[in-house]
Design a protein that fits this description.
19 helices; six-stranded mixed β-sheet; 442 residues
Amino acid sequence: MTSLQPPRPSRRTVTRGALALGAVTALGTSAACSRPVVADQAAAREARGPVTMWTSNNEQELAWGHAVAEAWNGEHPDEQVSIQEVPAGASTEEAITAAIVAGTTPDLLFAVSPAATTDWVRQGGLVNLSDFEDGTAYIEERGGEVASGYKHEDGDYYQVPWKSNPVMIMYNRKLFEAAGIDPENPGMDTYEAFLEGAQKIVDSGASRSAIWPAPTAEFFQSWFDFYPLQLAQTGGTRLVEDGKSTFDDADGVAAGEFWAEIYARGLAPQETSTDNAMAVGTTAMQMAGPWAIASYEGSIDYGIMAVPTRDGLPPEEITTFADAKNAAIFTSSRNQRTAWDVLRFATPIEQDRTLLDLTGQMPMRTDLLEVHPKYFEDNPPYRAFADQAARVADVPTIRGGIEIWQRFRDAYVASVILGKRPVKEEFVSVAHDIDDLLGAAS
């Protein structure tokens, strides 16, 4: 994928054509697959032995995985953990779907996409973690209120909320100052004020563009432009709630029209960037998570602010996109008790500190700032993201989630980015299509 943002946790490009595999089960239909589910799941749930753990191919997350495995293996000579990267594919979601179909899933995965889990569960690919005697209690004690957003449709947990990258706006303080914007208090908390500030940046010549989200059509790109604004404006209302689309209401349309105005004024380019645009000064802002800090540290003087809302909610009331990656166990695992023990070994407070140290990504646990005060004292740029991590929401846990996001993204590109059709008209139309899909799948 051509990078519009600094290097971030792995998410390979997926095109509409590359969704063919996922579309086999796009809305929860039961596609035939050759995955060798362990016949006696009750026995497997109590079995111990060697396990394989997959992580993202992101260098920092691989380092974390190896650190966890080394610590575990030193204490468990008969239950060794081996670390592998998620196999190459058009996207992490597609790679895992292919592994489920092919029967090549690991025991344990620390790169679970919430957008795909409902279909993976319906394929029979994921272990119900609530079936472990301490499963639900452990997940909810660690994740608090945020954890409930990752329940499956049956009310159980098939994933442990592991880490988040709350999406905020990072900005180049030097470029803001050059445009006459106070870098200490930009005052860009409303749609109107944000547009005024963005116009100043471009009109002043401080930067070629004000902000540069990816204008491409991959299903996940809306998570880094439209969706954080919808969540912020609505207090966390997800794209689909109770089996119905939500984005065609006044709040969703207002967020879409805000971005449409950004593009119509030329404040964000319609083409892709070939480099890290904010680092090289061709844009003044990016929507990013804490993973971006390492890319900017030492190269530019940056600031961090919450995403805008229509009327300017205070930052402490804003909910944004979590961009979570979670952990799960596959039903192909013959040693699920060891896999569960490893999962728990990898997610207590001590290992969360290792995750922070190696990746700068936010463990999904309650009172993060209080649990790891020394880390945030030593690394103050991460404090804003840690505070925001308490107010996040994720994608809806629905059947055919990826296909639904692709439908939305196609409509978004056509109306918001390219201006081929009014935003309200396009949002109402695609919401109707998505609701039909949801109804057919229920």
